[in-house]
Structure formats: structure tokens, C-alpha cells
């Protein structure tokens, strides 16, 4: 019985770690969707860029340099994208946005290959987070526990900012009704810019923390895009609660599905997605607007 309990605890921790990684990606994208009404399919490419920047900086100054500076670098790229492309495309309609950002995926993919090549890069786990810890009766990698703790800390920070601060109230007002928010004197355009850059930084952070676990390859942004979109559709657009719920549902269904029904593991999450779309097309916890 103890061995069975330890096995299921291990699977639950694996599911939670995957969920936190997906949350870091999905929260930025879902708020961009909800607030800006902008379909940014290139969000996964920013995640891959964060991983590559982190790997390059880690080779020079160690893991922590990449961890702290990769989100800043990706936010800088987000500023360029917003100024040169996103701001002009916001009013062009979803089809044009999908086509442009889909093309941007392949443009950034080729730029990644030009700068870093096709060979996979790797980052070593820092000595502080190396090894294993005893947690809930099982030995679990310290670095994966760090990812879980980081995700929970960011959820708490975002919940505080969105629920208890003035800028959070403005963001929620913009998501609910951006035209009315503008009438009340909120600088919605500046709000869009800040949210977009924060979303880019979180994508870069997700890439930096994923790099020691996964091979850093040019197509890693494409590989994570579909899971991120599934999280957003299940959870609902524009809400922190939806991003958390969607990430947890995806992580636990994917992890436990692979254990309990390995033949159906690749189908379960899509079946759940279809069920949510049929029963509640707006997602489980969408923003009011």
C-alpha cells in the first residue's frame, strides 16, 4: 500500500510540475486574448526564444543569469513586436491576426536556426537545485519542486495584483469592457502594451525553466503551442482562474492518462476539450466580458 501511495504521489507531482509550466505560458496568452482581442499564435516562439537565450547566457554566467535575464530579453523582443506589428494588427480582425502570427512562427523558427543552428542545446541544473528531496514520502528531483514552487508563487503574485491593486482593477475592467474602460479615463492602449510585455516575459521565463528539463530545439515552440491553446480553451479566456484550472486539468489528465490508459493517453485530452466546447463553449472560468 505504501508503495502504491508513493507511486501515485509521484505521478501527482509530475502532473503538478507540468501544470505549472503550462500555466506560465497560458496566463500571458489568455490575458492577451481577453484584453487585447488579439490572436497571437507566435507566443510559443517566444517561449522557445526564452529557452535559447537562457541556454546562451547560462553558458557564459551560469543558470541564474539565464533565469533572470531571459524574461527581460524576451520582453524586449515583445516591445519590438508590439511597436512594429501587433499595434497595427489589433483592429484587423482575427483571420489576419492568425495568418500574420502563424507566419511569424516560421520567421522566428528560421531566425533561431540562423543564430543557434539545428543542434539541441542543454542547460545544467544549478548546484543549489540539483539532487532529490524527500517530499510526501517520495524522493523527487529538487529542480522539479522548484518549478512547482515558482508556478505557485507567480499564481499568488498575479492573484494579488489582479485582485488587490489599482492596475489589476484596470486590467479586469479592460477585459470586461475595454470601450467603457476607455470612457472612464483608463489608458487602454498603455494597458495593452504592459500586459503584452508581461505575457512575453512570462513566456520567456517558462522557456528558461523548461530548458534544463527538455532539449532546447528550434521547434519546441511549435510543440508547446497546441497544449497551451487547449489550456486556454478549457479554462476560458482572460481569467487567472481559467488559466490555473485549464493548466491543472491538462497536466493531470495527460499524466494520469498515460499511466491508467496509455493506449488512449493522446486522445483523452482532446476528448475532454471537445466535451468542454459542447457543454460550455466559453470555457470553465471565462472573464466576464
UniProtKB/TrEMBL annotation:
Which InterPro entries does this chain map to?
A: ABC_transp_permease, BCAA_transport_permease
Q: Where in the cell is it found?
A: Cell membrane
- Organism of provenance: Thetidibacter halocola
Identify one Gene Ontology CC term for this UniProt entry. Answer: plasma membrane
Q: What name does the UniProt record give this protein?
A: Branched-chain amino acid ABC transporter permease
Q: Name one GO biological process term.
A: amino acid transport
Membrane topology per record: Multi-pass membrane protein
The residues that cross the membrane are 20-39, 70-86, 98-123, 143-162, 191-214, 267-287
Q: Which GO terms describe its molecular function?
A: transmembrane transporter activity
Kindly name one Pfam family recorded for this protein. BPD_transp_2
Q: Which family is this sequence assigned to? A: Belongs to the binding-protein-dependent transport system permease family. LivHM subfamily.
CDD domains the record matches:
TM_PBP1_LivH_like
